[in-house]
Amino acid sequence: MKTLLSLCSFFLFTTLCGQEIKNVSSPVDYVNTLVGTLSKPSLSTGNTYPAIALPWGMNFWSPQTGKMGDGWMYRYDADKIRGFKQTHQPSPWMNDYGQFSIMPITGAVKFKEDDRASWFSHKAEIATPYYYSVYLADHDVKTEITPTERAARFRVSFPKTDSAYIVIDAFDKGSYVKILPNENKIIGYSTKNSGGVPENFKNYFVLEFDKPFSSVAGFSGDQLKDNALELTDDHVGAVVGFKLTKAGEQVNIRVSSSFISHEQALLNLNEIGNKDFDALKNEGKAVWNKALSKVEVGGGSIDQVRTFYSNLYRTLLFPRMFFEYDANGKVVHYSPYNGKVLPGYMFTDTGFWDTFRCLFPFLNLVYPEVNVQMQEGLANAYKESGWLPEWASPGLRSVMVGNNSASVVADAYMKGLRGYDIETLYEALLHGANNAGPLTAVGRAGAEFYKKLGYVPYDVDINENAARTLEYAYDDFAIYQLAKKLNKPKKEIELYRKRSMNYKHLFDKETGLMRGKNKDGNFQKPFNPFKWGDAFTEGNSWHYTWSVFHDVQGLMDLMGGKESFVTKLDSVFTLAPVFDDSYYGQVIHEIREMQIANMGQYAHGNQPIQHMIYLYNYANEPWKTQYWVRETMNRMYLPTPDGYCGDEDNGQTSAWYVFSALGFYPVTPAINEYVLGAPLFKYAKIKLENGKEIVLNASNNSADNRYVNQVKLNGQSYSRSYFKHSELINGVVVDFDMNNQPNKTRGVTENDLPYSLSREK
């Protein structure tokens, strides 16, 4: 009998997996917010949490399985929930700020996080972007959450009991709570953060209940204090009780917060208004469907559709809003840079080292109206801090390398976004490009060396110097592009064009790879191209050698031409996944993720090499791009809790999948081209802000037919291996003829090649 059942299950599974989804009417139904949550510090399969939020919302919520302060707040393999946390965490490595939690309990009052924790099962859990529900077994309680941008509704279903409680934990490092029994209300604030905040930082919260309190208590540290209505200490919270007479009786909570004040937190509750839980839930579902429906796909398996929309969901979370609406409906924000309340937009929680590559280009194509606000927020960040943030959470953080705000600003303007202060942003780019900042990761560490020598030396105690040099050279290219567009002085334009070629200083002809160079002009010794870190950032020379986004032809020339270039590209996949971890003194998770992927030295789980697959197009062998793009999508992405092959990183790794599934990718942000790959679906449509549509047809696409035989653009034969932004933005119909054998004659003439600075006329 068991064998028969197993066979039936197998055939049902294979039927569902092989089922073709022709069209999608409600894309949010295909989103799995648990993708990437089966992670731990030693191995990331996304390092995500199930964000209960609206697109780019200021406040997210998440079930909390980890202890207070644990960056891994939710792990799929955990079996207990300690609370439901308001979170602003961009990644476990950055950790959190503006956080507090809510936890329903029954029976004896248990307020400590380990004591109140309850067993739960994924079988009794529903996780969507707009709605979360779980059964807390130890308390016989069902908890439901549905969010707005700055507020949320909780609906808690208790058993028949006279001992129903809700614990509000304001966390440690300085917190405050005040219970207002006559108003069925609790207010408070949390100051717990992981850095990047001014001294006056607080997250002010307010909770309104629809039932009167039968008992009240506060706690400070480990001490419960009956009838305590107001507490301020390192770690405080509140416990309110309810007398409930029937099974399934519900307590509803309206909750919101503000970085400005309690009064503003009350204003933020207006996002809920008089809507009940189900109305708010339906509204949230509609918001997500509207955002996700900007991109339609069809003609793929159910798992491909689930993977696509789960990735698209992740691209619409960060950077998050950090602004609010005052009593007059004006946009205001608490500045995470100077602690003042100021007018205008502000966004935060993104690292440009990751997201400049394709997350921001994706927003510029599909959601430009949102990125216009983000660009205004960047201008405000510069005015308030004197620098553009390279990693903001919520203010300046000293993480990663590069000066990639240049790419984020330039790409937006080059793609036609307007309505913000571009002159202030250009001033900010020049300032950041020529000065070391107050933190190592702000401005350019080693700026004086870079300006004088054309590179950051290996032997001057500036870590990851080769990575910095390569990224600075590309960032100079982005400034060069923007300077031309803004008609800046010719001398200024030429300066940044010249500096764009600085990548050449680090090319070692002996190995055909990028290599750290000492101040005296000699390359570092000894050199191990498999050594992670040291001269590079979270990678090795085999990963970073390709970081010449803007001049692939120039890199190819250094390597000796197309044949040598392709051989080098091929080697990435054929080399064994060996590594030298001596710089770190341990196997960091990025190394392990490359090692176990069985793709040689190709480390898709980290960002530096993600564009590399598309470089075959520059060397007359685009079919290899087509092969490896499909291979990477098939093998490295799944709609499951272990669905990523490394950190998801604020939408970047997700945006790679979304772009690649559509059939093109922005190898060089700040120019108006997208390099062709191969579409995953038989049909896709992008609904543009201007009312036009990009329609992508590949009717004979299949698992075997992964190669592009021919392309037609608006019915006309199209041989180029790239699309122009101007072609796409005006609305276009692209027809891909797919085949199971590569067409080695298409896209191989000089006129078919994508942009390279060395080929610029």
What's the shape? globular
Alpha-carbon Rg, integer: 26 Å
What is the helical fraction, as a range of percent? 25-40%
By secondary-structure content and strand pairing, the structural class works out as alpha+beta
- The count of β-strands is 38
Q: How are the strands ordered across the major sheet? A: 7-8-9-10-19-14-13-12-17
End-to-end separation in angstroms reads: 73 Å
| Percent of sequence in beta strands | 15-25%
Total of helices: 20
Q: Can you tell me the residue ranges where pLDDT is under 50 for at least 5 consecutive residues? A: 1-16
**CATH architecture of the domain at 26-292, please?**
Distorted Sandwich
Mean pLDDT: 96
CATH topology of the domain at 26-292: Beta-galactosidase, Chain A, domain 5
Profile the largest sheet.
Answer: 9 strands, antiparallel
CATH class of the domain at 26-292: Mainly Beta
What does this structure look like?
Monomer. Keywords: Calcium. InterPro entries: 6-hairpin_glycosidase_sf, GH-type_carb-bd, GH92_a_mannosidase_put, GH92_N, Glyco_hydro_92, PNGase. Residues 264-739 form the Glycosyl hydrolase family domain. Residues 30-258 form the Glycosyl hydrolase family 92 N-terminal domain. By secondary structure, this protein is α+β, with helices and mostly antiparallel strands. The protein has a domain at 26-292: Beta-galactosidase, Chain A, domain 5, CATH 2.70.98. The protein is built from 20 helices and 38 strands. The strands form 10 sheets. A 9-stranded antiparallel beta sheet has the order 7-8-9-10-19-14-13-12-17. A 7-stranded antiparallel beta sheet has the order 2-4-5-11-18-15-16, with no helix packed on it. α8 packs across α10, α9 runs antiparallel to α10 and α12 runs antiparallel to α13 (490-499). The longest helix is centred in the middle third of the chain and has 21 residues, at 465-485. It is globular.
